[in-house]
Amino acid sequence: MDKPEAPALRLLREAGERARELRYAYHEKGGTRDAAAQLGLPEHRIVKSLVFDDGEGGAVMALMHGDERVSPRKLERLAGAARLQPSSPEGAEAATGYRPGGICPFGLPSGLPVFAQQTLFSEPELYINAGERGVIAAIRPEALLAVCTGRGDLKSASQRPRPGGQREGGPFPGPSSRAEGNPFPGPRSSAEGDLFPAPHSPTDGEPA
């Protein structure tokens, strides 16, 4: 029996995108490195969808290369937030409607801002969680434009050690402030003709 199509793949195809489905064996805390190894993909082209929290009930999403870290300070400046920190798994699920390990920027609740690392758009193809653990969508970088609130340099200078002495970037989830004077337009709502409406359930996650 065929498995149901992952939420992001359905939304992308309904929007006219020729997204390809890639499946792998999801491992808790395996991250983008594990997905890249299983699928034979460059980790740099796998997109992490990370949620950051402002501590006051607000959140933002940051999209980053799988082998790079997000700088919370740079994200704060781009988002206009006073302070951001990685969200808890429970907070990320509540903010996005997806379980951690399947979180993606498609079909998010209206008002959740999405900020992308600008160099993602220089890649020939990107691989991103499809709203379900163990499922990745291969997409054109331009497919992210419909859900992005803004783009900029979000890379952190710090890197985590890679086995064998090499170094690489690591994930940092978290949201942003919706405080007064700090508006976050975020992705368009379905009422405004959003190409990627939110999932039916207000809970779910990201690819690593």
Structural domain tally: 1
Q: Give the helix tally.
A: 4
| Second CATH tier, the architecture | Alpha-Beta Complex
What best-fitting shape do the alpha-carbon axes yield? Answer: globular
CATH class: Alpha Beta
Sheet of most strands = 8 strands, mixed
Count of strand segments: 10
Helical amount among residues, as a percent range? 10-25%
Question: Would you write up a description of this structure?
Answer:
With 208 residues, the chain is an alpha/beta fold. The chain has a single domain, classed as Alpha-Beta Complex (YbaK protein), CATH 3.90.960.10. The chain contains four helices and ten strands, in the order αβαββαβαββββββ. Strands 1, 2, 3, 4, 5, 6, 7 and 8 form an eight-stranded mixed sheet that branches. Strands 9-10 form a two-stranded antiparallel sheet. It is globular. Residues 163-194 and 200-208 have low confidence and may be disordered.
What is the element layout, followed by pairings?
Elements: H1 7-14, E1 20-23, H2 31-39, E2 46-53, E3 59-65, H3 72-79, E4 85-86, H4 89-96, E5 114-117, E6 126-129, E7 135-139, E8 150-152, E9 160-161, E10 167-168
Parallel strand pairs: 2-6, 3-5, 5-8
Antiparallel strand pairs: 1-7, 2-3, 2-4, 6-7, 9-10
